[in-house]
Design brief:
The chain is α+β, with helices and mostly antiparallel strands. It has one helix and three strands. Helix content is about 35%, strand content about 20%.
């Protein structure tokens, strides 16, 4: 199974049920799949961070994969 690069972000309690999931596009834009317990301001802040840092995040993701997709290593 191949999974696109994505980012998880959690509420202050770091709970899984409170976490959000963002899929990252090739241009750094992100699509919110799950909002979790985050408010709109937090979601916007995270999406801005992703946009500003997606290239280094992608490079790190690639380090763990032979196909540029994370393989769970």
């Amino acid at each position: 199974m191949t999974e696109a690069m994505h980012v998880h972000a959690s509420d202050s309690k770091l709970t899984e049920e409170g976490s959000a999931k963002f899929f990252v596009k090739g241009n750094g834009d992100s699509v919110l799949q799950e909002k979790g317990r985050l408010n709109d301001r937090e979601v916007n802040k995270i999406q801005s961070f992703i946009k500003d840092n997606y290239q280094s995040m992608y490079d790190k993701w690639k380090e763990y994969s032979k196909t540029s997709f994370y393989l769970g290593k």
